[in-house]
Amino acid sequence: MRHRVAGRRLSRTKEHRLAMRRNLVASLFQHETISTTMEKAKEVKPFAEKLITLAKKGTLPARRRAIALLGNRDIIDYQDGNAVRKGTVIGKLFSELGPRYLDRPGGYTRIIRLSLRRLGDNGQLVLLQLIGAEESVEKQSKKRSRKKKKKAVEFEEIAEDQEAAEVEDADRQEEDKI
């Protein structure tokens, strides 16, 4: 019997659960939103919030504790087919995410259910997101005047049209090669 034993097993060994939790939280901090199953999201959410609370302190012992709990994975971005190192997950946690939530007492993440189900096992998919990434964008857009909003919308439409034209040109070139 599992009386008073906390946490979900998730049909994995202890080491696998720990590695999965670290990987999911590192991906959450890197991308600020991830898609996963409901059970995994519920298991990962408290761990992510504890790490953000550590980042709010911003001290060297807090940083060392976060590295011990999470690891210090590099953030890699691909530009022109080459891998470029953009920093580390702990660096982003302490420089961007910690200061973002200084005024917030808790509740840094949210789980949003998706209507999609996973094909293999019909598992319920959810989005696990950091709160605040969209709010800063909304605040900036509220500050804009109506004229600036209209110009921004027109600019976005022009950019989308140009991207569509580039995709069509690329498709034509591929067909010509074949």
What does this protein look like?
It contains six helices and five strands. A hairpin with a 2-residue loop joins strand 2 and strand 3 (82-88). The protein folds into two domains: 14-133, Ribosomal protein L17 (50s Ribosomal Protein L17, Chain: A), CATH 3.90.1030.10; 144-178. The strands form two sheets. It has a three-stranded antiparallel sheet. A two-stranded antiparallel ribbon has the order 2-3. It has helices at residues 14-31, 38-57, 60-70, 89-100, 133-143, 146-177; strands at residues 33-37, 74-79, 82-88, 109-117, 124-130. The longest helix is centred in the last third of the chain and has 32 residues, at 146-177. It starts with 13 loop residues before the first helix and ends with a helix. Helices cover 58% and strands 19% of the residues. The chain has 178 residues and is an alpha+beta fold. The mean pLDDT is 86. Helix 2 (38-57) packs antiparallel against helix 3 and helix 2 packs across helix 4 (89-100). The protein is globular.
